[in-house]
Specification:
The complex is a heterodimer of chains A (about 280) and B (about 180).
Chain A: E1 3-4, H1 5-21, H2 25-37, H3 41-60, E2 70-78, E3 83-84, H4 88-102, E4 126-132, E5 137-144, H5 146-149, E6 153-157, H6 162-177, E7 185-193, H7 195-205, H8 217-231, E8 246-256, E9 261-268, E10 275-279
Parallel strand pairs in A: 1-3, 2-4, 7-8
Antiparallel strand pairs in A: 2-5, 5-10, 6-9, 7-9
Chain B: E1 3-7, H1 12-16, E2 23-32, H2 35-46, E3 59-61, H3 89-94, E4 99-102, H4 108-117, E5 120-123, H5 129-133, E6 136-143, E7 152-166
Parallel strand pairs in B: 1-2, 2-3, 3-4, 4-5
Antiparallel strand pairs in B: 2-7, 5-7, 6-7
Classes of the chains: A alpha/beta (about 280), B alpha/beta (about 180).
């Protein structure tokens, strides 16, 4: 069975709207757990405001945050799938344009990074495509705000730097970011691969639900240790102090070269958003 | 720490009475301006041109709202990160700007100029954009309409919930060590 481009367009449009209007249940649970843990009244108040904001957004059909992001779209295309009626990239971009218009979402994309003219429809999306076995098409839409994106960093460590070196990069990145990326944040970490692979791993890590640890015990342990250390920094919700600077640290790793240890840290704000659909 | 209701425009005296950590409910007219709008405002000041609004006693909100749904005044409208406006801010403060609303820390030059001119930096809750939109009662583009969401908007707000992050003495809520 072929997949028609109209299905893709429709799915992308709906996901852009849904992701921006409805906060993920995992993040809401993260706020609630943080609220129980926090002892500072300012931190508690900020978390209560965030919970109320998520409720208002859902009820009034308003975006959770005015920065409705640049649309990052992850495509997993089954190698036996057939797309008909047009091309995939155009379909995704038409879906983004439709979603941002119909959802009253902010158009935040400029056509040229130096001349900076707004494209008016939030396109183009940033699209990452992977060929996988099978005949299905999995689409993930992750609108990315730039308050947190701007606070992300990448470092090419020495191969002997080890876990301690990785930790140092992550902690420094969070510390330098301070209040800017809208804490409590989600910290996406990519370790290994090459320069661009590490960055992509970090970005993809942000898709993992809050509260779910890495399935490799060593990395799960590193995630837990980093989360404790980050939350000891006392940056807190909105940078006003407290025990909750991050809701989660999500790490992904990939084999790398004998001479290097790339580490990328992609920061997600407290409204790290994503929606996923499978078409067949 | 106290809780105060303030009405814009703000006097130097009002601003100087605020201390870092105070909660403020702000009402009245405020103006949105982000990166490019700041660059244009400073260009206009340097060229000796008239600004789109009089800065004296006014409040700038670093924000670019979502489009309004039919029947609404404005879409979601939370603060953007303030440091990007730092290079332009001292000149606006010297020209009478009394308060800024945003999120995240400011640089040394901004804080020193605030101390000199008597200004305050107020924090809004980043990401609480749907909640903040409900406190905005009127919104009108008054300049740089070509910038879309980044245009300068005149907003009428009622009880906009804020916290004094940096006061006119230079006390900074982000520096707690």
């Amino acid at each position: 069975m072929a997949i028609h481009v109209d299905q893709i367009k429709e799915a992308v449009a709906e996901m852009c709207i849904e992701a921006n209007l409805v906060l993920g249940e995992d993040i809401i649970q993260g706020y609630k757990q943080a609220l129980e843990r926090e002892t500072s009244s300012v931190a508690q108040e900020v978390l209560e405001i965030l919970l109320e904001n998520a409720e208002i957004a859902k009820k009034e059909q308003l975006p959770i945050c005015q920065d409705t992001g640049i649309a990052v779209v992850f495509v997993e295309l089954g190698q036996e799938a057939v797309i008909e009626g047009g091309d995939l990239v155009t379909a995704i971009n038409e879906g983004v344009a439709q979603g941002y218009e119909q959802g009253y979402l902010r158009k935040s994309v400029v056509s040229n990074p130096l001349q900076r003219e707004n494209t008016g429809d939030n396109t183009p999306a940033v699209i990452h495509t992977e060929l996988v076995p099978g005949a299905k098409l999995k689409l993930t839409v992750a609108p990315k705000g730039f308050g947190s994106e701007n606070m992300s960093q990448i470092k090419m460590l020495k191969p002997t730097a080890g876990a301690a070196g990785v930790k140092e990069v992550v902690i420094n990145t969070v510390q330098e970011a301070g209040a800017n990326p809208c804490p409590p944040i989600i910290v996406g970490v990519g370790i290994g691969g090459t320069f661009e692979k590490a960055a992509l791993l970090a970005k993809k890590s942000l898709l993992r639900p809050v509260g779910e640890l890495n399935n490799q015990p060593q990395l799960a342990e590193l995630e837990e240790e980093l989360l404790v250390e980050i939350n000891n920094l006392n940056i807190g919700p909105q940078g006003l102090g407290g025990l909750t600077t991050a809701l989660a640290v999500n790490i992904a790793s990939y084999p790398t070269h004998i001479a290097g240890l790339p580490v990328a840290v992609n920061i997600g704000c407290h409204v790290t958003r994503h929606q996923q659909r499978v078409l067949s | 720490m106290s809780e105060v209701s303030l009405e814009t425009p703000l006097t130097e005296e009002q601003v100087k009475s605020l201390a870092a950590g105070d909660k403020v409910l702000l009402s009245g007219t405020i103006y949105t301006a982000r990166d490019v709008a700041h660059s244009r405002l400073v260009d206009a000041l340097e060229a000796g041109e008239e600004l789109p609004f009089e800065l004296e006693g006014q409040v700038i909100y670093y924000a670019g709202p979502c489009p309004a749904r039919p029947g609404q005044v404005v879409g979601s409208a939370g603060p953007t990160t303030s440091y990007r406006m730092d290079p332009f801010t001292p000149q606006l403060l010297e020209s009478g700007l009394r308060a800024m609303i945003g999120k995240g820390d400011r640089d040394k030059q901004v804080v020193e100029t605030m101390q000199k001119t008597g200004a305050v930096y107020l924090g809004a809750v980043g990401g609480a954009a749907a909640l903040i939109a409900q406190r905005i009662k009127e919104a009108e583009v008054i300049a740089y309409a070509d910038l879309g969401t980044e245009a300068i908007r005149k907003l009428k707000v009622e009880d906009f919930p804020l916290i004094v992050v940096i006061d006119s003495q230079g006390n900074n809520l982000y520096n707690r060590d």
